[in-house]
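Morning, I've got a small favour to ask if you have a moment. You're getting the sequence in one-letter code plus the fold written as tokens. Thanks so much in advance, here it is:

===
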Amino acid sequence: MRAKGLFSLLVFGIISAMAISACGEDAPQLTESQRAAEAAWAEAAAASEALGYIASSNASEHLGDEGTVRGTITDYQYNSDADGKPYTLLFNNPGFAESEPPISELKASEAFKLVILEDDRENFPAQFAAGYTGNMVCTTGMIIDCEGSPEIALLEPDQVEIGC
């Protein structure tokens, strides 16, 4: 009887130890390419900040601030059904650094964005969205929260500098 109790206690102890060690894992292990992408993002953010800019990946930390955000525009979207019929220029984010356009709606909801409404579009050159895509840009304006992601509303093309 005593051996049976000790065996149960031993099994309980092993199961508890396994559960505790499994709960201690904060996140799944990153692949080598994910670690490299994460390191590249950290380096890009540090370079942006050293130049006096806000890294696009850190824009959400500056909500309500007027500032210049630096990053790479990876895609754009036009939404003819939304109020203001906006063009949305999407910046890449560390969570999907290796994504290829088009970026899914889920990923777009996480990215820093530039938004140009229909009334302001006439201030920009034709094909402006395609011209910005794939380029490192710096954009200046008020960083606001729009449905959970940081963005700047563009009113004039001089708010954006390509190749900064």
In short: Confidence is low (pLDDT under 50) at residues 1-24, 95-108.
